[in-house]
Design a protein that fits this description.
With 181 residues, this protein is an alpha+beta fold. It has 2 domains: 1-35; 45-178, Rieske [2Fe-2S] iron-sulphur domain (Rieske Iron-sulfur Protein, 3-layer Sandwich). 22% of the residues lie in helices and 21% in strands. The protein has a 3-stranded antiparallel β-sheet, with no helix packed on it. A 3-stranded antiparallel β-sheet has the order 2-3-4, with no helix packed on it. A 3-stranded antiparallel β-sheet has the order 5-6-7, with no helix packed on it. The longest helix has 33 residues, at 2-34. The protein is elongated and about 85 Å long. The termini are far apart. The relative contact order is 0.18. It is found in: Membrane. The main subunits of complex b-c1 are: cytochrome b, cytochrome c1 and the Rieske protein. It catalyses: a quinol + 2 Fe(III)-[cytochrome c](out) = a quinone + 2 Fe(II)-[cytochrome c](out) + 2 H(+)(out). Its EC number is 7.1.1.8. GO terms for molecular function: 2 iron, 2 sulfur cluster binding; metal ion binding; quinol-cytochrome-c reductase activity.
């Protein structure tokens, strides 16, 4: 009789330990999914970019985050189609961006790229690398994740997703309003 009783106790322990393992794994997955940077909402910020020359990056502060405005040259735009096989999410199907920016250049206008300047791995600020012998990219100094000039992440780094594109709208030919669609 005591042998049957021990089997019941052992089975309950097994179910309890198994349930705790599943709960722990579920919490870990939930923590990972919620740790991706989310674009802030509200308090729109108008920014003039009319004087921004091609190849130059302007950084503005919005809700305590750096938001980039990059004016891409015609060569930069043409180069975006040249290396899609090296990208994790080339069509931006699993990325955070407004629906209107779900296109090859991830922007409302091909020549203007707007993004939150924060790596999707651990939030470090990537730096723009361009010039002779360089196709133009953003490089994260923390763990060397690379992003193209549309903010799409290359497979070789640890960043899990493309750069986040905030809601924004264009006002005329030389002004963008960040935080409004």
């Amino acid at each position: 009789m005591s042998k049957d009783r021990n089997v019941g106790v052992d089975r309950r322990r097994l179910y309890m330990v198994g349930g705790l393992c599943v709960l722990g794994a579920g919490l870990g997955v939930a923590n990972y999914l919620t740790s991706r940077p989310q674009p802030p909402a509200g308090n729109p910020l108008p920014v003039d970019f009319g004087d921004l020359p091609p190849g130059r990056l302007r950084t503005v502060d919005w809700h305590g985050r750096s938001v980039w405005l990059l004016r891409r040259s015609a060569d930069d735009i043409a180069a975006l189609a040249g290396y899609e096989s090296e990208l994790t999410d080339p069509a931006s199907e699993h990325s955070l961006q407004p629906a209107a920016c779900r296109n090859a250049h991830r922007s409302l206008r091909p020549e203007l790229f707007v993004a939150i300047g924060q790596c999707t791995h651990q939030g470090c600020p990537p730096a723009l690398r361009s010039g002779a012998g360089n196709r133009g990219e953003f490089l994260c100094p923390c763990h060397t994740s690379k992003f193209d000039l549309a903010g799409r992440v290359f497979r070789m780094g640890p960043a899990p997703a493309n750069l986040v594109i905030p809601e924004y709208r264009l006002e005329g030919d030389s002004r963008v309003v960040i935080g409004e669609a």
